[in-house]
Design brief:
Layout lengths: L1 H43 L3 E8 L5 E4 L5 E2 L5 H14 L7 E4 L12 H4 L4 E4 H10 L3 H10 L3 H10 L11 H8 L12 H9 L3 H13 L4 E2 L1 H12 L6 H12 L18 E8 L2 E9 L6 E9 L5 H21 L5
Antiparallel strand pairs: 1-2, 1-9, 3-6, 4-5, 7-8, 8-9
Helix pairs in contact: 1-12, 2-5, 2-6, 4-5
Amino acid sequence: MTSYLVRRNVGIVFVLLVFCGNVVAQTEASLARLDRAMARGATVADGMVGATAIHLESGLRVSLNGDQPFPMASTYKVPIAIELLTRADAGTLRLDEMIDLAPADLHPGSGMLTALLNQPGVSLSIHNLMELMLRISDNSATDRLLTRAGGPEAVTARMRALGIDGIRVDRPTAVRIADRYGASLPAPETWTPEVFARAFDAQSQEARAAAAIKFDRDPKDTATPNAFASLLARLYLGELVSPDSTALLLDIMERCMTGVNRLKGLLPAGTVVAHKTGSNSGTANDVGIITLPESAGHVAIAVLMKSSGRPSADRDRVIAEIARAVYDYFLFRPEAD
């Protein structure tokens, strides 16, 4: 009897070892396929692509160029929102606080405030401006909120206080865009759409090309995919701001109206993605949190791109294919069974 039990237990152990070995092999194989899919998508961009994805329930992480800095473009509006909400939680500002807007607050880039700012006497709440900043990427709203948040230094200091070392905010959007095109701006109080247009038009194509190369090498206003994915993971897990502020920020990001062909582009219809995009010439970014179906959990993902020579549709496709590869891996990975 003892001999039978020993043989039986040895047999069970052997089967378990074979099973575990197969699971490990399958996991490594599927992870290798994901790595190849991410790398393949990156080659299409004709530039540098970085991507990091973290499965929030298991902590499993995959990354491509995860420690390389990339220009954030408008994805840097997420750190600005976190600083604002931190101050709201501390009681040093209120989300219903009204902010006056003047014609000089109209800044180039994404947004819908142009018509409003052509008329004097416009005021919007911090909450309203945050919706504009995150949902339609309004740059005028962003720069007013950045000032109210204490400026770029305060936002970067908040990232450091949270233990996020790979994200830095250095300039308002107006200055960042001017630097991208090599344009020189006068004093901020003199800014008008006409002033911006003259500053940008004064640059030759050669000067703009040189400015673009310099911009992509500049450490200012950059993030690593690892840092941004970690920031999003900690946001979702409630480690950055209060529960109410966490819910508010994720709700706004779920209603983001830009980048429909990026992270969400190849995902099944109805997939919930709380995200924020960013774009410049040569740059296409999308960062967010994907909700997987069938209680499979959530994935924080950051896909950042710089120095791409491809059309915008091709850049969007690269991001979409990486997001779909990540989605499939974490939904169907062997160790989840």
